[in-house]
Amino acid sequence: MSLSVAAMAERRPFSVTLYLALSRLAAPLYRLMHFIRCRSGKDDPSRSGEKFSVTEHNRPDRPLVWIHAASVGETSSVLPLIEVLTRAGMTVLLTTVTRTSGELAGKRLPKGAIHQYAPFDRLPHWERFLKFWQPDLAILVESEVWPACLESLASKACPICIVNGRMSEKSFKGWSRFSGAAGYLFGKMDLALAQSSADAERLAELGCRKVEHPGNLKFDAVPETADQDSLRELTSSLAERPVWLAALTHPGEDEIVLQAHRALLRERPDLLLMLVPRHPARTHEICDLIARQGLKVARRSAKEVINSETRVYLGDTLGEMNLFYSAANVAFLGGSFVDVGGHNPVEAASFGSAILSGPKVANARPVYKSLWLDGGAIRVEQPGQLADHVLRLLDDPVARDLQAEKARTVIDSGRGALQRTLDLLEPLLPISLSKGEEVER
């Protein structure tokens, strides 16, 4: 009997039963939530059916591995894994939650892979989803643990794995308050592959029965290079002006960045800020903030030209982070001054940016910790210190290049998790990978 089937026989905790019942009753709320997300640009209204397990695809007649990733960072980290599995003859169904991750999948998924948006977490949704797709293996990425999803999977006796498993201290404490539910749900996992030893320990304590630590897949994800015509056009418009980048910012951080930029302009009047919000749908809100600072902005989505009076270039498009990283050699990574948990720094490091971040990076703490300790990134403790750190990097190209080189060294030394992950997944895969095949890096 598989571990997931054995776990199914356990008595379901009341908290899980209550969740499943409430999620059934919440069908109208999910409809309203999806409507609001479509209005704000966070969901794709043309693919609404997928959020409720209605698909326009046909189920391919060959072994199928289902991989579920939440957003862009998680999707990017499993793209190399998906490439290996499809080359071996498997169909890969990738489900994601956010619109940005769906658009990334549309651009970068290999032949033999299908993208769908994941349905809301209700038993009827997952029952319909699993009846249609009939996966031979389910792989959940990082921390995507949803009660209705796991309950439905276990009832189908489908092997369940976590890859690149992450369990922050905060999340661990939250799950620990419901230890019965945690043990019941995490006990359904046939295999948990953790990013770090700390993540492995927490996953084991929560109830995962077989836990391994192959490393962080994000180190093995190779970012797509920027479109060279777009890069030449952008760098030409900069006219050799000094530039810094604020990438993947969230509400509350745009104000911090703009205040820092105002301070920097007193020292470097020709300095340009490239501001790229995590959610481009916030364009008008951010333009209002910029106007209140008395700064002239050019929006990329509107194809507005950067001229000598432009002080902020708003990167309000999707799928162009590689372009902005390529054009700026100093980058502040957002989500790190607010309670979001930070964003993966591997892409920025791969493009040679000198990285700065705030201290709140729980989602990628092992990577940031390595970068901080080895001098590959700067931890900015307080928002008021951001301008000083940016200015030092702009004024000292030798120190800036050395920091970027140290970051690349950290990233290179962390590679290899993909091959170790494949080795551990091999017994559960519906098609065996070629013996001795080397993973392309």
Structure notes:
With 441 residues, the protein is an alpha/beta fold. It folds into 2 domains: 3-220 and 416-428, 3-Deoxy-D-manno-octulosonic-acid transferase, N-terminal domain (Rossmann fold); 228-413, Rossmann fold. It has 19 helices and 14 strands. The protein has helices at residues 3-8, 14-25, 27-39, 72-87, 99-108, 123-133, 147-155, 169-176, 179-186, 197-206, 228-238, 253-267, 283-292, 321-327, 346-350, 365-373, 386-395, 397-413, 417-425; strands spanning 64-68, 91-96, 113-117, 137-141, 160-165, 191-194, 211-212, 243-249, 272-277, 297-299, 312-314, 330-333, 354-357, 377-379. The protein has a 7-stranded parallel β-sheet with strand order 3-2-1-4-5-6-7, sandwiched between helices. A 7-stranded parallel β-sheet has the order 10-11-9-8-12-13-14, sandwiched between helices. The relative contact order is 0.11. Residues 1-9 have low confidence and may be disordered. Involved in lipopolysaccharide (LPS) biosynthesis. Catalyzes the transfer of 3-deoxy-D-manno-octulosonate (Kdo) residue(s) from CMP-Kdo to lipid IV(A), the tetraacyldisaccharide-1,4'-bisphosphate precursor of lipid A. Its EC number is 2.4.99.12.
